[in-house]
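User: Could you check the structure of this?
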Amino acid sequence: MLLVLWRKWTGRGSAAAVPEPEALNPEETVEAIQQGREELRNDLIKQYRPFIVTTASRFSKRYIDPDRDDEFSVALLAFDEAITRYSNEGGSRFIGFAAQVMNRRLIDYARKEQRHLTAVPYSSLQGESDEEGSVLSKIEAKEALTVYSREQIAQDRRDEIRTITEELSEYGISFFELTEQSPKHQDSRESLLEIGIRLAKRESLLALLKDKKKLPLKELGQLENVSRKTLERHRKYLITVALIAAGAYPLLQQYITGADAGSEEGRL
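Assistant: Sure, the predicted structure tokens are below.
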């Protein structure tokens, strides 16, 4: 269930430095840019330049010089990409979304840089000491990248959980309530999961849910042929499943479908 994910992946840790909130809301600024106010794009990039540097530096485990290091250019282009691609319909915040895009592009860049190390002949490790150290350092860097990728996925999960926590608060739902709300029997859980997923796919019902911040009991009951009492009893669980399925939560969505979710937890 989702509470288990919360306890497993939400840890105490410092987040990437983000500029202090200002009068200009980043989500509103991005929306304005997407609607044609391109003059705001450079202003937003300039405002969040320290955040871009910090994100690239955290990924690289060293300070990234914007004037010399390619990683800054990769992160900068990714931030610009995030401005174009961002949508707040899933409830995600722009900064969290931008950080994910930057980290994924940095991973792609690092993988390309390390690709030639996929096959290193053993003899190449037996040269001069300096050369040996250089090659071994590259291999260690490649292994570190694999570890980092796993750590980044865990961080992305934590970010998604924080975001869904904020979104659920608008519906009066907390993670600590989901323990009691989770169906006890496997058959019931599977059935309600499917109902929640179908709710997310029905645009009219999803719009009602987001507009009124309430489960559309009557309409959903008629479509699913399920009693109002059953839906009401599992209201918070269904809302949580629907918001995850409809939102920008690719990692948490794995725990709805059961795909690649890991052997420990399975589905919600």
